[in-house]
Amino acid sequence: MFNWQVTLFGTVAWIIVESLLYNPIHRWGKFWAKESGMEVKMENQTMTTGDMIFTFGGTIIGGILLSSAAYQIVCWFAKNDNDGWLMTSLQGSLLLWLGVYGVATFVMAVYSGQSKKLVGLHLVNGFLGLLVIGLVIGFLR
């Protein structure tokens, strides 16, 4: 089962949340920029068009995949769950974060030598992004 509306709105919500969380216009985003080394890239404007396409293209594809996966998980749980659709969608998003997104983010960040603070930041940002996808699924279903 595929739902275009949930996928579209979930992807847009994911992009907005992730763009705001990683944007260095506030303390949280400035911390990320400093810890990840993006502060230097942004100061010198060395980010090429190809880098931007790769970054935002990956964010869009990630949003599509996460929204679709979350919707599939929620549909599966909704058949066997007595909770309301919103609660089921939030639980499904949490399980997707715990079982897939969080584990992959943690392993990749740790093995690439990122600081513990940066690993935590990525985990929190991913959790908030998936939480918003869960809300989109819960309200649009």
Question: Explain this structure to me?
Answer:
This protein is mainly α. It has one domain. 84% of the residues lie in helices and 0% in strands. It has six helices and no strands. The longest helix is centred in the middle third of the chain and has 32 residues. The protein is elongated.
Class computed from helices, strands and strand pairing: mainly alpha
Uncertain parts? none
| Mean of all residue-level pLDDT scores | 88
Q: Tell me, what's the shape?
A: elongated
Amount of beta strand? under 5%
Query: Strand tally, please?
Result: 0
Largest sheet: none
Distance, first to last CA: 13 Å
Name the helicity range: over 70%
What letter string, H or E per element, gives the SSE order? HHHHHH
Radius of gyration: 16 Å
Task: Tell me the count of domains.
Answer: 1
Total number of helical segments? 6
Could you list some keywords that capture this structure?
mainly alpha, membrane, 141 residues, DUF1761 domain-containing protein, DUF1761, 6 helices, elongated, transmembrane
List the helices and strands and how they pair.
Blueprint lengths: L3 H18 L5 H10 L1 H7 L4 H32 L4 H27 L4 H25 L1
Please sum up the structure shown.
It is built from six helices and no strands. It has 141 residues and is an all-alpha fold.
